[in-house]
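Thanks for the sequence, V.! I ran Phosphotriesterase right away. Repeating your input here for the record:
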Amino acid sequence: MNDLLHTVTGPLPASAVRGPVLAHEHLALDLTRGADSGARLTAGHRAAITEELASLRAEFGLSLVVELTCRGMGRDVDGMARIAADSKVAVVAGTGWYYEPFHPRELSRTSAEQLARTLVGEIERGCGGSGIRPGVIGEVGSHGDLPSEAEARTLTAAALAATATGLSVATHARLGRGGLAQLELLTAAGLPPHRISIGHQDLLDDPAVHRELAAAGAYIAFDTVGKESYQSDRVRLRLLLALLESGYADRALLSCDVSRHGYLVSEGGTGYGHLFRSFVPKLRAAGVDETLIDTLTRRNPLRFLTGRDGADGASSVAGGRLPGCEPE
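Predicted structure:
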């Protein structure tokens, strides 16, 4: 366990993070394929992103963004460092490989052990020649109910690198599918479940799977809040409340996963602040108190990043009946 976070502007004690954390976002990426030019956040969007984060720091106390753009996704750690310095919001960068359609060709000839050595090198020495060290491994991905052979190797590499360096692993489970298989593969490679966050579970309308993942000790990422074209926030709220009612408030992570420039407030989107402006008020209206909101938005992501296990005495409402909410 290490309470020191590696951010893009240098080491930061977790105890210095006093406000909320966005557990899965993107500040610089390029996922364009074919004619889809919208899945980009470039240097040209940097000023708008900086302004959004600075505004959220002033209004809600936003303290940290976990930036999960990894290798092959257009990662720009120097750009992230400029955004962090100018917005005064700390940023943790990621490493690893996304799901198979975004894998570089040479991965097909590389073993999991070799891939893990590449990740350990970045974690220990920095990305490229920047000297900027990743503070998390992710978002490492798969699509479908079972990882492909290539995805199994990159997920195994992530687990091996995580055990060697003490970092945690955040996954991309496309449309919420395949989380149980990801967890089985990562833990089989020696990574404890409390060092794992299974991504995009708010896109999977299956509370039983969420409970099974949480019971095993993994974090459940409700990390596409506001992406109504994928899933309504009404369903997200129902799924999250069901998880809280089941006693797993200490296993939930929240974020918006801004992954296209059209999501930025400057372009008419809901932006990085949708979680605080829209979704958290809905949680309050459902009977979730401020202690539990702090658990969901600050304590949980910090415990995930640092490897602290256990509920930290914070989930006082979990397991009790929330007003107006019947468990699934």
